[in-house]
Amino acid sequence: MAAESAPPFFTESIILLAASVIAVPIAKRLGLGSVVGYLAAGAAIGPYGLGLFGSGEDVLHVAELGVVLLLFVIGLELDPKKLWRMRRDIFGLGTAQVVLTGVVLSAIALAIGTPRNAALVAGFGLALSSTAFALQILQERGQFSSAYGQRAFGILLLQDIAIVPLLAMVAILAPGTGASTGGEIVSEVFMTLAAVAGVVLAGRYLASPLFLFLAASRAREVMLTAALLVALGSAGVMHAVGLSMALGAFLAGVLLAESSFRHTLEADIEPFRSLLMGLFFVAVGMTLSFSVVADNLLFVLSGVIVVMLVKGLFLWVLARATGSQTTDAFRIAVTLPQGGEFAFVLFTSAVSFQIFDFETANLLNAIVILTMVMTPVACLALDVIAEKLKQRGIENPVVETFEEATPAVLVIGFGRFGMMVAQILTSEGLEITAIDTRPDRIAYARKLGYRVYYGDATRADVLSAAGAGKAALIAMCVENDRVMSKSIELIKHGFPNVRLFCRATDRAHAMELARQGVDFQIRETFESSIAFGRAALEALGTPIERIQEIEEDVRRRDRERLEMQLKEGLFAGADRLHAVTPRQAASKTSDSPYPQDHPHGRAS
Fold first, then answer.
1. Burial environment of residue 125 by CB neighbours within 10 A (0 to 12, 13 to 18, 19 or more)
2. How far apart are the first and last CA of the chain?
3. Strands (DSSP E) along 449-527, which ranges?
4. pLDDT digits (tens, 9 = 90+) for 441-460
5. CATH architecture, domain defined by 59-391
6. Are the C-beta atoms of 199 and 234 separated by less than 8 Å?
7. CATH class of 405-524
8. This prediction's pTM
9. Which ranges does the record mark as transmembrane (predicted)?
């Protein structure tokens, strides 16, 4: 009997996974980062390496979805208000960088004899940096939220927007292309505005109610499907009118940044984003032709040096001119000097419009790829220099982000208990992030002004997305003992340095929490019972000093009893409940438990 044939793309998938598993850890061990590992894996198994793949184009078409999902996740981290605050970096710094770098690189291309139209496309294509590459580096280094990381992202976002007019420029520069009529231009502008408006309206008024409805079903796979639908659907709408798919996904992410489902969406998308981004860089590595590089080695290496120096210089100068510190400007220049993935799109379009031939495009692609390879090396060199300066006392560490300056607290469970905890913390100005799994509770809390997100505390990815790794303290206020126990295990394993304060439902639960090694636990009714007893004694006319003595004695005996129970079992320490209290001892000589001068005592 003949063996059944393997499913389509099965063998190729194994090769891709195996190459990545081998190359990425080696690159990380060498300090070059995972991106260089993926590029090396692609170059090794591609048509110009071992020849295990005929072409990387088919893989690249699928892997481009990784860039789309990356921009969606980045959008989730930026609410519209924050995006508006970045407008100067996006439209000022970003525009200046693209225009000035593009003009200078185009002039250099003209100077070496490149035709005018081809020089313009090559210069502006090389002026774009890699959003996927740079953001991957910033996230791996934990510096996306830093001051320079946010400015770098503003530049990258403008470059993503710039691909639209640059593609239009390619069409205009194409030989024999006639000018568009006024009616065609108006129609294209109308379609573009309609697509943007459609994504905005759907994201603001339809997405949140959809996720609210799906959350009530408690079907995680449906929530995941909906998250992918929103990200890819918005990208598809933008692509249909000729805009960047990544830009559409980013816009959808920004519109959902204030949604209560933000952290769960981020956690659901992240595995797909990481896998597809790795696949994207493998596919890019496959396009590197070693024979073309070898035959034109001097040209390619010169191109790499010129591109990185020109872009780095303009990035440093513009960042300094717009207010960045010297070190931050240098970091921006070192992070963004490489060519970008949209350059591949632009050069491919230029070939199809016969602005330059395939060999020229291949040389330009080789320059882009090698600049990507050199960027982590430059970042590594920057780290070495910074460390030496720090050891000599030249560089003083500074707090660069609000998150580093202000202690953050993650509140898990936002019922009555969690809300009271949040009131105490926010009154001190602490930064609070709260998650819960009940949509009705989230909606109620948001009406009161609290920012509460949908999130399952038994998922490590959700805890990470909600900021458990950055939190100084996690307040576990959930009612379910099983959920709390599983969440504590995840926190202890994944975030061992965070302080863990827990709400105990009863005495047995408090003992369990103590055994789990939490930093603080308290029974949910303990303090309210103490307050109730105090109020009752006050109503009966007991002196305040006596009430304080009684409260102190009750608290002490409760602690002693709990310690005995932890050692000997739940029923240990019963004598702590029945021993003679100080109040009874003081009244032994009296026929009444009250002093002689008490209103309820014997008549004088």
1. buried
2. 110
3. 452-454, 473-476, 499-504, 520-523
4. 888 888 887 878 888 888 88
5. Up-down Bundle (1.20)
6. yes
7. alpha beta
8. 0.60
9. 6-27, 34-53, 59-78, 90-112, 118-138, 150-173, 185-207, 273-292, 298-318, 330-351, 363-386
